[in-house]
Amino acid sequence: MFVIIMGAGRVGYLVAKMLESDGHDVTIVERDRERAKELANMINGLVIEGDATDPKTLEEANIKQADAFAALTGKGDANLLACILAKHLNPKVKTSLRISNPQNRRIFKEVTDLKKYFDFVISPEEIAAEYISRNIVTPGFDRVLFPKEGAEMVKFQIDETKEIAGKLVKDLKLPRDSLIVAIYDEKGNLIIPSGDTRLPEKGQIIMFAKNSVLDDLKELVEKKKTEGEN
């Protein structure tokens, strides 16, 4: 996938590095001259010094060939305009809009005409706040949040000391509103489980669960075997 990123602050730079590590082609458009020069030695892709709210700059970045465009600066108005221009120049490009004020999200839900310009609206500040608050309330999880659904994807390590190790999935008595979606054995082999799947003695399990049952789930999964139990 070919992705153009507008803005290379902390968010834009990290996104670019993650995309590159996954094998995608990345071009960054950055207004600040010194930052653009610095980035040229930090990423593998092209870095263009310029303003992505200028159609000429987007064309220089090859927007018409891009699969995705992400406006990730801290300036919401500039991000909004850049996404509109990107869609105008390439109607097929998938746009991601960063907003600094999470309250503005409702505007994109209520104004139907805006939706055609923005495929994905994200607020890093809102995500960070949600992530921090969830870790305060229920600490100790390696997690991915689903705030709208009130649920999370969480990962647990299992070993021979845990009571659930070696048991069949159907015998675990999982809390309601929780589900094992993936199992990795000690060698990293992926297993998509059924009720008759036996957990490894050592590995990882990925679970999807509502926030309300996370404490019960953690207690069940991390419970140690009693002395003398095989």
List keywords for this structure.
25% strand; six-stranded parallel sheet; five-stranded antiparallel sheet; Rossmann fold; Alpha-Beta Plaits; 11 strands; 2 domains; alpha/beta; 230 residues
Tally of separate domains: 2
**CATH fold topology of the largest domain:** Rossmann fold
Looking at CATH, the homologous superfamily of the largest domain is NAD(P)-binding Rossmann-like Domain
Strand line-up of the largest beta sheet:
3-2-1-4-5-6
Number of strands: 11
Please give the count of helices.
Answer: 7
Rg from Cα: 22 Å
Low-confidence stretches: none
- Category by helix and strand content: alpha/beta
What percent of the residues sit in helical stretches (DSSP H or I)?
A: 25-40%
Q: Overall 3D geometry?
A: elongated
Q: How confident overall, as mean pLDDT?
A: 85
Q: Largest beta sheet, briefly?
A: 6 strands, parallel
CATH class of the largest domain equals Alpha Beta
| Terminal residue distance | 49 Å
Order of helices and strands: EHEHEHEHEHEHEEEEEH
* CATH architecture assignment of the largest domain: 3-Layer(aba) Sandwich
Strand content: 25-35%
